[in-house]
Amino acid sequence: MRLPVCRAAEIPRKPEDQRWLIEELWAEEGVGIVGGEPKCGKSFLALELAVSVASGAPALGRFPVRRPGPVLLFAAEDPLHVVRERLEAIAEAADVDFDTLDVHVITQPSLRLDFDHDQKGLHHSVEALKPRLLILDPFVRLHRIDENQAGEVAPLLASLRTLQRRLHSAVLLVHHARKGGGRLRPGQALRGSSELHAWGDSNLYLHRGRDTLTLRVEHRAAPSPAELTLELRGAAGLALRSTRPAAPPPVPPDPAQRICAALASAATPLSRAELRALCRMRTQTLAQVLAELTARHIVVQRDGRYALA
Known about the structure:
Strand content: 15-25%
Helix content: 25-40%
CATH superfamily of the largest domain: P-loop containing nucleotide triphosphate hydrolases
């Protein structure tokens, strides 16, 4: 049987605002690594991203989340009560309601992706929940293979790539860098096979100096932002924040234009919650404008979801 093909010009373009899960930090449906030496905040950063994607709050206080949605998390090294406490503190610092936070935690005590039944269990869980983001922390606890052997690492990463492509979820692996690898290019400092570095669509690297914590970002198909310096902030709960102020946002169009632009760029009809997150609009304002657009037959509503007429 022949393989399916099409002309290059027939491949659909992807709208700019659908290229990012977290603008500048993580590609939409991208796989990748949060890497760094031990005790430099990798797990904390992964939880920060989980709260942002699940709630729509800007990551690190400055990077917009384009399409918020559920997050599925497996934290192999921390007790469940510690995971809860950290997520609750991050949500509180971000002014997010923790009780409705759409983060789902795998409670199975171990997950071995080199075991067929665990791999299938993960695929079934992702298929059922349909998370925007799957977080697995850390990679070393997910297998019993030799991380230095490309022939053993590649099939495991390929299974996660297949999951991402088939189920359209971004995948984030937390992984350790070699001790003393601070002078190497961040991707080259990752422990184990170079397959890990090559696998990532979006990779984030943390490095702790004497007095600073820095974040470097690397993308396969997009320019990377400048290196960031991070710090823990928050009176209510600790949260990682960039010390560089965010650029002032552009003057937004009026609410009706924002809603129409969001609907025009969406591949499928959107719910009110999705529109509210994308348009950054108060619930009352969104309801009033949607009612006006629907009455003017610019927008149609079906089964609680909205699309352009």
